[in-house]
Write a structure and sequence with these properties.
The chain has about 240 residues and is an alpha+beta fold. Helix content is about 45%, strand content about 20%. The protein has 8 helices and 7 strands. The chain has helices at about 5-15, 25-30, 35-45, 75-90, 95-110, 110-120, 135-145, 215-235, and strands at about 50-55, 60, 150-155, 160-175, 180-185, 190-195, 200-210. Strands 6-5-4-3-7 form a 5-stranded antiparallel β-sheet. It has a two-stranded antiparallel sheet with strand order 1-2. A hairpin with a 3-residue loop joins β1 (about 50-55) and β2 (about 60). α1 crosses α3 (about 35-45), α2 (about 25-30) crosses α3 and α4 packs parallel to α6 (about 110-120). The longest helix has 24 residues, at about 215-235. It is globular, with a radius of gyration of 23 Å. The N and C termini lie far apart (about 70 Å).
Length: about 240
């Protein structure tokens, strides 16, 4: 890789990160030595790029840096099309249409030599039949996520019992056999996951959730990671035999 291309790739790595990234991770992705990377970072700083680095923390690109958009690579176009096909096979009709519209917009500006990598990408994803009753709740729940609004739902559990909940949406997870709403449940005062196809009634309230969705997501992620670590520790811990 030419040095000019490598510098642009470093900028792209920094742009996609939400926080500091270690020099070792950047070097590993670029397949260069740390010494080479450090020289590249010095070159970026000398050219006026606001890159800030701290030992033990990593590098970050300061806010406000305006960089002209770069053309997609063939690999990036393949990834975009595969993602659109995954959305078409798993999400609701409105989101599937949005994915197709996005592909059409990208195809209209991509140079002809690259366009085939997008529209003729030989990468496909399974198409799962979507239940009609999940379409309405999905659209409403996505709207609540965007606007950070609390949602009142009536939920039917595995035993068929109904319960009313007020929830603060955190994220929607698309799995092969189910679509889950991850949220804070005010009734249980804990994070819960609800299958969207079991939400019988829903309404978006005018009240905004008391905490930003980003904060709720960070709290849920921390709790999930702790639960996974505890489960892993229970599995790996040796069995003890108590003497008679």
């Amino acid at each position: 890789m030419r040095r000019a291309d490598r510098l642009l790739q470093i900028l792209q790595i920094l742009r996609r990160q939400r926080g500091p990234i270690a020099a070792s991770r950047i070097a590993e992705e670029l397949e260069v030595s740390l010494r080479t990377l450090y020289r590249d970072m010095v070159a970026l700083e000398a050219s006026g790029v606001p890159v800030r680095g701290e030992a033990g923390v990593g590098y970050v690109l300061e806010d406000g840096y305006d960089m002209p958009p770069l053309m997609f690579s063939a690999l990036e176009l393949e990834a975009i099309m595969l993602g659109a096909r995954l959305v078409d096979g798993r999400a609701d009709d409105a989101l599937a249409r949005a994915a197709k519209d996005a592909i059409a917009k990208i195809a209209s500006v991509v140079p002809a030599p690259l366009r085939s990598h997008l529209v003729e990408t030989p990468l496909y994803a399974p198409h799962y039949q979507r239940e009609t009753r999940t379409v309405g709740p999905l659209e409403a729940l996505r709207e609540a996520l965007r606007d950070e609004r609390q949602v009142d739902i009536t939920y039917r559990d595995l035993k068929g019992q109904m319960s009313k909940r007020t929830v603060w949406p955190v994220q929607i997870s698309f799995f092969r056999d189910a679509v889950l709403l991850v949220c804070w449940c005010t009734l249980r005062e804990a994070f819960r996951s609800f299958r969207v196809d079991r939400i019988e009634v829903h309404s978006i309230g005018p009240e905004r959730v008391p905490k930003p969705r980003r904060t709720l997501f960070a709290q849920w992620l921390k709790q999930r990671d702790m639960a996974l670590q505890e489960a892993s520790a229970r599995i790996e811990s040796p069995l003890t035999v108590r003497g008679i």
